């Protein structure tokens, strides 16, 4: 054992630089993984971040009269109490729209528990009694910003002109519109002004628990203690569930990226850690001739390289955690929860051990006869090379090329190690292009109608007239969205009647055809999967008690409701559901500005809303793509550095020969860089080409699997790909240049003299 | 030995025993030096050829000793020898004849011959090693002679190996 | 003079056949060899005669195809690689043509490694190392890296390493093959000293100066022994001089 320790220590000391590089490479990859996972976790469910930052209350109790906070605090398991706060229903009045809200009192001094987190503007101030702070998701939906007018009408009909002073986020209730009504906070006095009658208010109290797992138990205790007072209880579990991004497409894409990212990371770690062993074969043979057993050699290698890799993992975990805590505070991020953190740490540690284990085992099986010093690889100057020399290509180019492809396995590994990250980056770019396509051509994802108008303060019959009168509006399609019952399903499915059969809404039909008559419909992929039908089948749905038989004639791209939507003309609907027309979907002229049209129509008394472009809903993917690109770039870099280090070592003898032949240091550098450069270029080009050609197909696959439907996939533009490829090649060449320059001035090793 | 004596006399005249001592000192133990009788015989011949001349010197209690001088002709011959390049083969090999002729005679097996010769060479090499160890480090001439002999011996052994590969 | 103890190394009809891409290439074809304690045996022969293969097999670095190998009265050709490794630590020291020092370790570490491997404490290993380096004239070089030493010094370090555990058998494969004349002499002298202290040595060489230091010279041709000569000097013999090789005219 002492002998092993002595050799490991000496070896590490002698190769300090390479050892440090390995540790840093692994640490970088792990840190990147952790950062990406943190972003992911928060992106897919912001609940944890909000709840932690606001020191949220696990249980919110709605009672008629305010309970005794001391009594609640005495309950076993309750750590702290928030409130009780008075809360009253009111109506937000906006031009053309009336929205029910809940107005809740909150003190000017932010409480300890259940604290809203101010995102824009400021919190309540007793010097400004007319200020309200609006919950952020509600504010976004209603177009409120700090400084906007906040006119409320109380239950008694009196109007109060308040002002929005800030927007805040809370982890104590879900996002609007899943969680209704919208929430706004104000000072007690203001609430009293809007709703003086305490009988029309309720009391809201929050409990923070010592052990969140005991929520159900404590809820029961609370109900028992408070008896009939309790009107409603909401727990953190419901809030978290509601905040979760419930989108299958996103989920599938994330899974895909996550898996590939992990595999690429694993490969890079394996390369960084395991590649070193190959260099030591000569020493291993010597050790064996001295009397090291196979097991001892394997153990020595495991310890030496495993230690480096594990040190990298530990460093990476610490660095990743530090980055998320200190460098990303502006994004609502809390450090990765323990589960995923442990998973990443143990996963990478395992990868390190496996990556080291295989070469260590192979090293153990080296024959104990130390061979003569390795001869330079035998590569005959092929005909192609000779021709190239004849044509007077620079010798550096030819030698470099021959050099690069003589050693097949390392060449293949380098190329592969760059092709895979490039491929993933290309696919990422494809996703980006797809999202851009959603934004620029919303009609291709079924959002030809930029605005939806409903009757606001004008009678329903005038809506169409007013809308069409606007210069920016090209067409108005009557629409109604109803929930239908379908055979074999326990929940309802969205049925969308839009346009008439003669003049249908411009859905984006990718298979089959558009409906032309009453009784025909098109469906999203999700619906076809759900009901297990195909184009050409008839389906029987029940709408508002009335059965309806529809013939499915085509498939459309359907980003809503995971594709489980049936679309047909409004004339296929029963009259009682279609009259009066609930809304109109407006298609604007290409040069019209949706915001201006919206303002004009609102001024005319219509209620206008804008459907959310799927690209916005899936915006988190852009963040992920960026994060993943960084991770993959790091991985590619780590691979390259490893390949370089190995290659230069092999080259030591070649270098001497080249210099003896009379090549200047600059030419030697050029040869070395060419060798790497050719492999890099090959890897990048292969990866980009494969990735680009696959991206459309893969995205379509994801689309089909998630119900949106295939047909959305886009290939990234040639310019984008070219830029990405050139950047990658440039960076790789730069990385190869520095050690190559140093090696070119390397003095000729003793053994060759 | 003739030219060796001429060279010694060119340096300074000397008598028989002095010449013998000088001869012994040149190579030390590494090379056998002639006895006094052989030296006198050679000196006489040289005198007859007119390359040296002797002068009797009287001594009181001993018989006369002859002191030898180099003549002008002797000096000429010496110069000519030194200045002209040495021609002729330098390797004398009887063993190879034996090896080649052995199968015809039917007396000895080639392998046996080779083995026996090799053993001889190795023992010789051993002796040369010992000689080199005991020779005065300052005597570069002797050391070079021994090294030369060793190199030739190594070459002989290598040749022997080649013969063994090809002829047996 | 027969010795009562078992010979240090004994082979019976040792055979080694390589498979070179399906074509069997016999390297050693039935070698019977016995080396007694304290003997110095040199193995010579043309290249391709199987010398290196033979000595590698004696040290367990290569497996045999047929025949037996006995080391100190114990049958060893059937040992597994790991068992051989353990045996090698205590009983065999190996010196290679290309020195094969571990480049990343200092001279001191290189020489101490076998002792540590055999279970000695760090202090014992160091003591033994100082002793050996002193005996071989390398005391000042303990902290140097092998790359900083000349070829001759490196081979001396390799010799020190081979002798670290006082092996029963010292094996050497062309120990002077990579050295110039002066370094060869140094190494030769050391081998002689070591032999004088009673070390059993078997070495492979093509250099006659090395071979003639041995007690026995074995000649291999085509994987078989063709000559086994005893060349220990006997007092009565007349000593050779340079005249036996070169006849000076003039």
UniProtKB/TrEMBL annotation, chain B:
SUPFAM superfamilies: Winged helix' DNA-binding domain. Coiled coil: none annotated. Residues 91-167 form the Transcription regulator PadR C-terminal domain. Residues 5-80 form the Transcription regulator PadR N-terminal domain. PANTHER family: NEGATIVE TRANSCRIPTION REGULATOR PADR, TRANSCRIPTIONAL REGULATOR YQJI. This is PadR family transcriptional regulator. It comes from Thermopolyspora flexuosa.
């Amino acid at each position: 054992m002492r002998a092993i320790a002595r050799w490991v220590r000496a070896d590490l000391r002698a190769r300090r630089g390479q050892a440090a590089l390995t540790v840093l490479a692994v640490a970088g990859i792990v840190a990147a993984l952790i950062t990406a996972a943190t972003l992911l976790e928060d992106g897919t469910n912001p609940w944890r971040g909000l709840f932690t930052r606001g020191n949220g209350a696990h249980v919110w109790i709605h009672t008629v009269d305010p309970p005794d906070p001391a009594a609640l605090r005495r309950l076993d398991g309750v750590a702290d109490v928030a409130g009780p706060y008075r809360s009253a229903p009111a109506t937000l009045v906006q031009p053309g729209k009336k929205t029910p809200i809940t107005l809740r009192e909150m003190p000017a001094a932010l409480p300890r528990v259940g604290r809203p987190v101010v995102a824009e503007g400021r919190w309540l101030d007793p010097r400004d009694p007319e200020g309200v702070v609006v919950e952020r998701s509600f504010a976004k939906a209603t177009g409120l910003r700090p400084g906007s007018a906040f006119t409320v009408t109380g239950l008694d009909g009196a109007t109060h002109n308040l002002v929005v002073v800030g927007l805040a986020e809370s982890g104590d209730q879900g996002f609007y519109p899943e969680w209704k009504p919208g929430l706004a906070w104000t000072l007690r006095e203001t609430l009293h002004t809007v709703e003086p009658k305490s009988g029309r208010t309720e009391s809201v109290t929050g409990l923070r628990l010592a052990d969140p797992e005991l929520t159900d138990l404590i809820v029961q205790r609370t109900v028992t203690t408070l008896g009939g007072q309790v009107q409603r209880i909401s727990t953190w579990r419901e809030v978290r569930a509601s905040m979760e991004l419930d989108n299958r497409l996103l989920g599938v894409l994330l899974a895909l990226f996550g898996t590939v990212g992990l595999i690429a990371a694993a490969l890079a770690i394996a390369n960084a850690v395991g590649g070193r062993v190959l260099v030591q074969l000569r020493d291993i043979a010597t050790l064996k001739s001295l009397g090291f057993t196979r097991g001892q050699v394997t153990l020595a290698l495991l310890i030496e390289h495993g230690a480096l890799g594990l040190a990298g993992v530990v460093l990476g975990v610490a660095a990743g955690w530090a980055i998320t805590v200190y460098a990303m505070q502006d994004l609502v991020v809390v450090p990765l929860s323990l589960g995923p953190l442990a998973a990443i740490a143990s996963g990478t540690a395992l990868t390190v051990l496996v990556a080291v284990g295989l070469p260590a085992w192979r090293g153990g099986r080296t024959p104990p006869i130390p061979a003569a010093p390795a001869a330079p690889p035998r590569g005959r100057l092929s005909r192609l090379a000779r021709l190239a020399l004849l044509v007077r290509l620079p010798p550096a180019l030819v030698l470099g090329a021959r050099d690069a492809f003589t050693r097949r396995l390392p060449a293949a590994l380098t190329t592969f190690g760059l092709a895979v990250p490039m491929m993933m980056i290309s696919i990422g770019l494809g996703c980006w292009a797809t999202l851009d396509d959603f934004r620029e051509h919303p009609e291709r994802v079924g959002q030809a109608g930029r605005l939806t108008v409903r009757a606001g303060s004008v009678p329903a019959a005038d809506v169409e007239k007013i809308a069409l009168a606007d210069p920016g509006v090209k067409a108005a399609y009557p629409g109604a969205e109803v929930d239908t019952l379908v055979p074999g399903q326990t929940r309802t499915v969205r049925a969308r009647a839009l346009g008439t059969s003669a003049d249908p809404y411009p859905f984006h039909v990718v298979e089959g055809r558009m409906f032309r008559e009453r009784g025909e419909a098109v469906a999203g992929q999700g619906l076809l999967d759900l009901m297990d039908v195909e184009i050409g089948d008839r389906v029987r749905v029940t709408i508002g008690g009335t059965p309806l038989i529809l013939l499915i004639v085509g498939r459309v791209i359907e980003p809503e409701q995971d594709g489980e939507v049936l679309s047909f003309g409004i004339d296929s609907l029963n009259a009682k559901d279609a009259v009066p027309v609930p809304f109109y979907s407006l298609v604007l002229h290409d040069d019209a500005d949706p915001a201006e049209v919206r303002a004009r129509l609102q001024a005319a008394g219509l209620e206008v809303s804008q459907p959310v472009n799927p690209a916005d809903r899936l915006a988190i993917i852009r963040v992920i793509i960026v994060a993943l690109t960084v991770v993959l770039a790091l991985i590619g870099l780590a691979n390259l550095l490893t390949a370089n280090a190995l290659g230069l070592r092999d080259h030591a003898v070649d270098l001497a020969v080249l210099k003896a032949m009379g090549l200047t240091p600059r030419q030697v550098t050029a040869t070395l860089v060419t060798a790497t450069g050719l492999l890099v270029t090959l890897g990048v080009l292969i990866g980009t080409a494969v990735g680009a050609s696959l991206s459309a197909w893969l995205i379509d696959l994801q689309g089909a699997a998630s119900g949106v439907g295939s047909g959305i996939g886009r290939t990234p533009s040639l310019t984008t790909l070219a830029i990405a490829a050139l950047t990658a090649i440039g960076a790789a060449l730069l990385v190869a240049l520095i050690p190559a320059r140093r090696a070119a001035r390397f003095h000729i090793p003793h053994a060759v003299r | 030995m003739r030219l060796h004596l001429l060279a010694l006399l060119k340096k300074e005249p000397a008598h028989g025993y002095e010449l013998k001592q000088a001869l012994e000192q040149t190579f030390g133990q590494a090379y056998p030096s002639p006895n006094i009788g052989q030296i006198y015989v050679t000196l006489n011949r040289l005198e007859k050829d007119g390359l040296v001349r002797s002068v009797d010197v009287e001594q009181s209690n001993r018989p006369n000793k002859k002191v030898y001088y180099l003549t002008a002709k002797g000096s000429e011959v010496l110069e000519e020898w030194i200045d002209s390049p040495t021609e002729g083969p330098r390797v004398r090999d009887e063993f190879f004849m034996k090896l080649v002729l052995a199968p015809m005679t039917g007396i000895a097996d080639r392998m046996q011959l080779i083995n026996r010769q090799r053993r001889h060479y190795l023992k010789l090499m051993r002796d040369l090693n010992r000689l080199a160890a005991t020779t005065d480090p300052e005597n570069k001439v002797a050391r070079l002679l021994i090294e030369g002999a060793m190199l030739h011996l190594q070459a002989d052994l290598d040749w022997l190996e080649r013969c063994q590969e090809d002829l047996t | 003079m027969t010795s009562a103890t078992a010979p240090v190394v004994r082979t019976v009809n040792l055979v080694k056949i390589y498979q070179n891409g399906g074509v069997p290439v016999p390297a050693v074809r039935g070698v019977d060899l016995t080396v007694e304690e304290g003997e110095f045996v040199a193995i010579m022969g043309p290249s391709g005669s199987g010398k290196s293969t033979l000595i590698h097999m004696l040290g367990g670095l290569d497996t045999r195809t047929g025949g037996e190998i006995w080391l100190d009265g114990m049958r060893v050709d059937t040992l597994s690689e790991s068992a051989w490794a353990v045996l090698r630590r205590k009983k065999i020291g190996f010196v290679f043509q290309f020195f094969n020092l571990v480049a990343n370790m200092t001279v001191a570490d290189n020489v101490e490694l076998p002792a540590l491997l055999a279970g000695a404490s760090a202090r014992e290993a160091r003591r033994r190392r100082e002793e050996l380096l002193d005996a071989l004239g390398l005391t000042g070089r303990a902290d140097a890296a092998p790359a900083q030493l000349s070829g001759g010094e490196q081979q001396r370090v390799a010799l020190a390493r081979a002798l670290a555990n006082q092996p029963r058998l010292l094996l050497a494969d062309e120990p002077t093959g990579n050295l110039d004349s002066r370094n060869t002499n140094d190494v030769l002298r050391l081998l002689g000293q070591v032999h004088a202290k009673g070390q059993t040595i078997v070495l492979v060489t093509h250099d006659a100066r090395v071979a003639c230091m041995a007690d026995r010279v074995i000649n291999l041709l085509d994987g078989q022994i063709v000559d086994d000569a005893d060349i220990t000097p006997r007092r009565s013999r007349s000593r050779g001089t340079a005249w036996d090789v070169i006849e000076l005219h003039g």
